[in-house]
Every structure is written in structure tokens, then in C-alpha cells.
Amino acid sequence: ASLTVTDGNGQMGIKSTVVMVQPSLVAAPNFRVCDINNATLVSASSSYPCNSAKSWDPQRLPTFDDIVLVKKEHSIRLPKGNSQIRVTGLCIEGTVQTQLNNTSSPPNHVVITAGAIHNRGTISTTPGINGSIGDGAYKHATAGGSISIFAGRFINEGQIAAQGRGGDDIPYRYFDTAS
Question: How many percent of the chain have pLDDT more than 70?
Fold first, then answer.
């Protein structure tokens, strides 16, 4: 399979990959992942990260057997660091995004794997953090967050906002010139 992405400035990138497909009822064309009657786990709050049971109704963490619905009014933050989310189905009507980055840890990378994903909302990454000088030390800029999506069936009727631009580093002055 080949994916072509064009940014707002008309710059284009193409990536080829091998796609492995495992048969699944959820990946069938007639299965409606966004039907509330099919959901086994529904977002309950935007106040907690997705790896908190308080984010979900019923209050438990998503498992591979779940069909997850993120409601329109909710913004779900994906776990920090390198993490994986595996569910049977995922319907995004609200927002799913990576955690904010910081200069003291590597950028966030999340892998989402599902039999079917239907995006009606927003899938978003967070930008990198600029380099800074503080507390007597220099902190280098960080890369932006990233999300990898693997699905047997992917429908996008929403927005995918790849805002994972890296932060700007401040040049370190090795030599000061005297006049």
C-alpha cells in the first residue's frame, strides 16, 4: 500500500508499506463502528488521560475486545511516552491526541491498532518544545509527538492534525569574540 500526504504548502510525501490484514467482523464493510449499540466502552470525561479508568464508562481501561467510542464533547489524551493501544474498534467523534511534550523526556509516540477505526472528529499530535536555558543548564528542543495507526478498515471523515513539529533549538555560544 502507498500513502501520499500533502501539507498546506503543497509539499508532498509518499510512504510505501506492507499491510497485514487479519479477518475481523469489525473490519467488515457493513459493521458500523460508530453505532452506540456496538460500543462496549464510551468516553466519560476529558479530565483524565485515556489510561485512567475515570475516562471511561464503565470505569475500566480499554482492552483488545472493546469497541471504543470517544464522544463529540470529549478530548482524550493518549498515554505519555512510547505506548500501544489495541482495541477491536475505535470511533472518534471528539478528539484523540498525544500528551504534551516536555524537555525532560523523549517525545510521545503512540501506536493505535484496531480492526476498524472511524474518525469523525480529530486525531492530533502535539508540537515539540523549544530549547531553553534555565536553572543553570541548557535544555535541548524536543521532537513533536507522533501517532501510528494500524487498522483493518480506516474511515476518515474528520481531521488528522499532524502538529508534531519539533521545537527550535537555541544555538549554544562556544566562543565569544572580543573586540
Answer: 77
